[in-house]
Amino acid sequence: MRRLALSLLVLAPALAAGCGPRGYFTDRWRDAKDVFSASVGTGGGAKARVGPVQVGALFNSDFAGFRGGTGFHLTQPFSERAGQVLDMASPVPLPWPSDKIRFPLTSAEGFNLEYCEGRFDRAAVDRDKTYNAIFPFIPLLTVSDRPYYYTQVEAVVGVGGTLRLGFNPGELLDFLLGWTTLDIYGDDLEARWERQAPRAKAALLALMRAEPKLFEGADPERFAALGMKPAGYGKYAWGAFTVNLAERTYAAAISSEAAFWHYRGHFYGQRFGEWQAANIEKQHATAAPK
């Protein structure tokens, strides 16, 4: 009896938020992986950073390790990799070789795995664990548009090869509060997709009703009664449809003995959180006579 009560107590926040147990614990695991970081790179110097305050001199590009909640191994050479994964700190302003930045910098940091070649977890990108940070003229400071950047504590040191170690108390708080479904950094993917799934369903139903000849033989009322079931990373199965919430796209394949239809489209957001669906491809083929 005690075990049952404990299980219900643990699962109560997930059920109250409408997120299934598997998705709930997936989010908790991802939150846990955000707390610590350790990676190696190439470059030289030393730097210590506490939130937006840093000291040291460093020019470095990480190529392997664990950052942003993901293990990664990048295969590009330094000259290519440093354009996306870079950490530069200088006690004096330095001119920056970029047409977009025309003033000297004392800090330039980027962690943009989505533009790199190699292995990493796609969830890090979808959870916005990639970032850029810069600061001009004045040393010791750096700014970013990612809130978790301001709670990161880390140090980097090395000559030729570098080692980075970090700890993020803000991510630890996000992990602990996450058990109550409070998501202070907005990075709970599974919970986000659970909220988005009904919007995608409503958007497709609206498209069916607005263009009844688009989806051959589809009955909106029958589809309205169908639930959306998780079917992989960011994907939900809904009748003949596969809805990809990670990419905000959908596809459907409908076949009969006489014909075949294939559909492909995407979603885009409207005001007040509503979604709208648009079909961008419809293919039809007639089965060859037997």
Give the secondary structure arrangement, pairings included.
Blueprint: H1 2-17, H2 21-33, E1 36-50, E2 53-67, E3 70-74, H3 78-81, E4 85-94, E5 105-111, E6 118-120, H4 122-126, E7 131-136, E8 143-144, E9 153-167, H5 169-178, H6 189-210, H7 220-224, E10 229-230, E11 235-238, E12 241-244, E13 249-255, E14 259-269, E15 275-286
Antiparallel strand pairs: 1-2, 1-9, 2-3, 2-4, 3-6, 4-5, 5-7, 7-8, 10-11, 11-12, 12-13, 13-14, 14-15
Helix pairs in contact: 2-5
User: How many structural domains does the protein architecture include?
Assistant: 2
How many β strands by DSSP?
15
Listing every helix as H and every strand as E from the N terminus to the C terminus, the arrangement reads HHEEEHEEEHEEEHHHEEEEEE
Rough outline? elongated
Report the sheet with the most strands, covering strand number, pairing sense and barrel closure.
9 strands, antiparallel
**Span from first to last CA?**
62 Å
Which class best fits the helix and strand makeup?
alpha+beta
Low-confidence stretches: 3-12
Beta content comes to 35-45%
The proportion of residues forming helix, as a percent range, comes to 25-40%
Total number of helices: 7
Radius of gyration: 24 Å
Q: What's the average pLDDT?
A: 91
Oligomer: single chain
